[in-house]
Amino acid sequence: MRLGGALAAAMMGPNFFGVVEVFDGKLRPVVKMSVPAETATVAPSPACKIAG
Fold this sequence. Notes:
The protein has two helices and two strands; from the N terminus they run αββα. The radius of gyration is 16 Å and the shape is rod-shaped. The relative contact order is 0.24. It is an alpha+beta fold. Helix content is 23%, strand content 37%. It has a two-stranded antiparallel sheet.
């Protein structure tokens, strides 16, 4: 199994958590917290045997 470039890049970036709020009279996504990818994902395990 091979990950596409965009998907692999998304997994390396931070994770954003937020809500939708009214800003300048329009609904906008507002980021409330960001978690680095290193913190949000665990290291690969040698026990995982996904065939490639």
